Amino acid sequence: MPDDDGPALVPDSNNSFDNDRHGKPHYYFRYRGQRWPIPAPGAEGFATAYDGLLAHIKANPFRSNATIEYMPGSLGWAIEKFLGSPLYSNRADSTKRNYRRILDQLRQKWGAGLLADLQPHHVRQIRNELAAKSTSTADIGVGLISTLWNFATEQLGQHKLGADPAYSIKRVHEGKREHALAAGDKRTVHVRSAAVATPGRQAGALHRATAF
To answer: Which end of the chain, C or N, has fewer beta carbons within 10 A?
Structure first.
């Protein structure tokens, strides 16, 4: 392995968008004490990220005051820029605490991924992983990804990103409500059918059928 004076790829546990949770190695680009999350060699976005980091260290050969930096254009980079912006700082304290908790999860797990590689199926995967612990966190997480996408496009110069990949992703609670309403419709049909057979109870049956 190259010594710490030259660039090196270091296996670690940080995830990019398509990495799984089954022990497959993930990578940092390391140079003189600094580390940048990077997609695995051969993965989508790796060549672009690697070439960009080589150009970065040539332009900044002696910077060594940080332990981890995110490559410009990555999700982690957009999160850090967002946290330093008025779009975050001007929110209520309770909102900031909640957002920060979820943004830290997104940054730690998926921060290495490039925004240009982020697709709807990635957002769906992120939503599902977050929902395994908290459905509200998953829904807010999808909303924050959309916010970060628009922030990067409008304020960070990422004009070529295209359509928001989180736009069409269904929120977890929306899915639960649709399921409950569908079940309610079935109950309504059943109760109204019973009401026709027993006219004296029709008004009460219809009231119960339409209540949430």
So the answer is: C
